[in-house]
Amino acid sequence: MAGGDAARRQTPQASPNAGSCTVTETLSKPMAEAAAQWVRCPGCRQMIYSKALARNLQVCPDCSSHHRLTACERLGQLLDEGSVEFFDVAVRVNDPLGFVDSKPYPDRWMAARMATGLPAAVVVARGRIEGNPVITAVMDFRFLGGSLGAAVGELITRAAEAALRERTPLLLVTASGGARMQEGAVSLMQMAKTSQALGELDQAGVLTVSLITDPTYGGVAASFATLSDIIIAEPGARLGFAGPRVIAQTIRQSLPPGFQTAELLLEQGLIDAIYPRHALRQGLGRLLSIGSRRSTEASTLPAGQLSERERAVITDPDLVPRVAPWDAVQRARNLSRPTTLDYLSRVFEDFEELRGDRVSGDCAAIVGGMARLAGSPVVVMGHQKGHTPAELTARNYGMPRPAGYRKAARLARLAAKLGLPVVTFVDTPGAYPGVEAEEGGQAIAIAECIRLMSGLPVPVITVVAGEGGSGGALALAVADRVLICANGTYSVISPEGCAAILWNDPSAAPRAAEALRLDARQLLFDGIVDGVIPEPAGGMHTDHGLAAELVQHALVGSLRELSKSNPEQLLTLRHGKFRRFGGDLVSTREGWG
Q1: What is the model's pLDDT at position 62?
Q2: To 10 degrees, the CA torsion angle through 414, 415, 420, 424?
Q3: Beta strand 273-274 with 422-428: parallel, antiparallel or unpaired?
Q4: Which of 291, 322, 353 is the last residue of a domain?
């Protein structure tokens, strides 16, 4: 322990690109160098050579425990070399209560300043990550436990205000034990102040990202840390309102293993992703680039005529090959057909999955995130089944629960905020018809999703890639362009369900399929879909590469056409598209207005 304690007392050297982020040494140089040779890992309790630990970004090479970083070290690891520009601020102590515990609060604050060389528990700077401009506020747990006081709240708010002025994404790196008790209610008010600042960024369409590091608790967790568009965490990072010790002492309850850790939070749908430290720069770079609406040089969307392949979407029902409806059902259900994840890996670039509904869970039957289509940023989501029995079970056979639709709605709102087109893939028998789903508000979740999709001020394209079952499919299919693969189906109910209800005979499913007119040719004829994507001979399942190429060209062509319309035009046309269904069945009588 002596070596570890000494290492903690000494001040780490600033990263090469940390600019003026320097600190005051508290040990003599020979003593500091000797103490720093070895440190004890808090995860596996093994002694680690400090230089080896530094080379591994302060991650234990034995147990992968992510050791805490100073704010300067974090900036050095994340920001591009030479890009750091620190905010020029002067911070003075705020002592509204005249607080004294074992020592006066100003003395405690000054001791923290001398020990860390920092003016407050957060460092604010401009910089770049993988070439992408960013405003970043990085907390340092060494400064009074990273607690949220008036100075910290002011610096976080100023960072948000700078991001607003400069229309630059905001990255918040959190490490905090909670609100600063020594500042009383003034500290409490910082939660409202910083939350308000992030709300202004929401209204302005500026991307916000939180990187949760260990630990993040209390007032920080219940304000700016969890209000960002995207929340990522380091492995093992703990996040919560009340800490384990407070919970245990208050309710006398033993806590489950992994309580409040990033891994459990990901399962519970409360964060988007876990990035190991070596992957942070690259992952953040992709998110910032897409969230800033930066197109790559490979982008083909802004101008130009549609290629012959992009025109290959069939819009004339007579040109769609005839398929017996029951045969189409069987082909649509073929487990070898490409899934949403297959299309994501082949059709899109730079896909970053975002998970969870931020309320109750992460439904694996819907996947989605941010990506690029032909170089242009998009938000993409879809039902996910799988190819094997194990995958089907894990994904609930592509039947979403309420959390899945709430996740889809969250991604759609993110797309609207950032002005990114939305692409959805439909392939589901329908929403999950279980007790748990009904108790969780399945109908409400679907209804909210349909309403939200109807009003998105960005282009929306849907591909019915396999089964389009009932409202569970429609929740992701209120789009400007609804395309269907040639062997796809789309129906108000499954043929088996229809046969059981209306004929009281499940074996009448083929007859029901015929009556439901659920095949691509009939759907195009009836105007339910806008176009049919041709399939390779034998079906999409016979050639995933060609299937992806056909879908990609259909999407690129549709998006290029839709990009010519402004948000008001998109909404007007989308509203009219769905408004017309059944409009010829009711005539207006005199006196109806």
Answers
A1: 87
A2: 140
A3: unpaired
A4: 291
Q: Looking at the domain assignment, is residue 581 inside a domain? A: no
pLDDT tens-digit map of 521-570:
999 999 999 999 999 988 999 999 999 999 999 999 999 999 999 999 99
* Helix-helix angle 280-291:71-78, to 10 degrees: 70
pLDDT at residue 231, rounded to an integer: 98
121 and 257 belong to one structural domain: yes
Give me the pLDDT at residue 501, please: 92
Both 482 and 553 in a single domain? yes
The alpha-helical segments, DSSP class H, found in 378-457 are 389-394, 402-418, 435-439, 442-454
Question: 409: pLDDT confidence band, cut at 50, 70 and 90?
Answer: very high
The secondary structure of 245-286, three-state, reads HHHHHHHCCCCCCCCCEHHHHHHCCCCCEECCHHHHHHHHHH
User: What kind and span of H or E run contains 380?
Assistant: strand 376-383
For 477, half-sphere exposure in the C-beta direction (CA atoms, 13 angstrom radius) is 25
For residue 562, which of 461, 466, 442 has the smallest C-alpha distance? 461
What's 238's DSSP letter?
B
Residue 515 lies in a domain: no
Q: Are 362 and 267 in contact (CB under 8 A)?
A: yes
C-alpha–C-alpha distance, residues 305 and 303, integer Å: 7
**Is 27 a member of any domain?**
no
Res 14: pLDDT: 40
- Quote the number of domains for the chain: 2
User: pTM above 0.85?
Assistant: yes
DSSP string, 479-503: -SEEEEETT-EEESS-HHHHIIIII
d(CA 232, CA 242) in angstroms, rounded, equals 20
SS percent in the chain: helix, strand, coil, step 5: 45, 20, 40
In angstroms, the Cα distances linking 394 to 169, 202, 399, 406 are 35, 34, 11, 19
| ∠ Cα 110 115 120 (to 5°) | 60
Residues 238 and 357 in one domain: no
Residues 456 and 369 in one domain: yes
Extract the tokens encoding 525.
Answer: 């004829």
Provide the domain limits for residue 158.
Answer: 68-291
CATH number reported for the structural domain that contains residue 358 in this entry: 3.90.226.10
- Among candidate residues 478, 459, 464, 476, the one with its CA nearest the CA of residue 535: 464
Residues 384 and 449 in one domain: yes
Rounded to the nearest angstrom, the gap between the alpha carbon of residue 551 and the centroid of all alpha carbons in its chain is 24
The separation between CA 222 and the C-alpha centre of its own chain, rounded to angstroms, equals 19
- How do beta strands 489-491 and 230-233 pair? unpaired
Residue where a domain terminates, one of 230, 256, 291: 291
Same domain membership, residue 138 and residue 226: yes
280 and 321 inside one domain: no
Alpha carbon distance, N-terminus to C-terminus of the chain: 83
Is 200 among the domain residues? yes
Paired with 353 in beta bridges are 369
Say if residues 145 and 177 touch (Cβ distance below 8 Å). Answer: yes
CA-to-CA distance for 267 and 18, rounded, in angstroms? 35
Q: Following DSSP, what letter does each residue of 57-68 receive, concatenated?
A: TTB-TTT--B--
Same domain, 474 and 417: yes
